[in-house]
Amino acid sequence: MATTEEGSILNAELDKQLRDFAQRGSGRVQAQISSFKNGLQTFEELNIIRVRGKKARLMIMEDYMPVIGEVDGDIDFIGRTSYHTISNAKGFFCHEHNVFFLLLKETEKPEEGKEEEADA
Description:
- It is a single chain.
- By secondary structure, the chain is α+β, with helices and mostly antiparallel strands.
- It contains one helix and six strands, in the order αββββββ.
- It has one helix spanning 4-24; strands at 29-35, 39-53, 57-61, 67-79, 83-96, 99-106.
- A five-stranded mixed beta barrel has the order 1-2-4-5-6.
């Protein structure tokens, strides 16, 4: 069993690999998040959507097969120059035709200000 330190090192390495992959993607995925608290939020030019639920993990990429499910955990929206996370999300999602729809029942405030500058 991995210790907490080993687990955080593995997570950091996976995060780096995902960001590297996102640099090569075309950014055709769009995310639409609907909640009573924040209304409708839209994220454009995404390459990866990572669902990290308590029961399952899922990585959705461009042209991924249609999928529908329930989430109780964190969701990362990864693009070439952006990385957004919604923590403790509870709700339902659907992915179809490169559009990810998320209907939230309840959530903590999304982490903002994680926009990254493109490397020049």
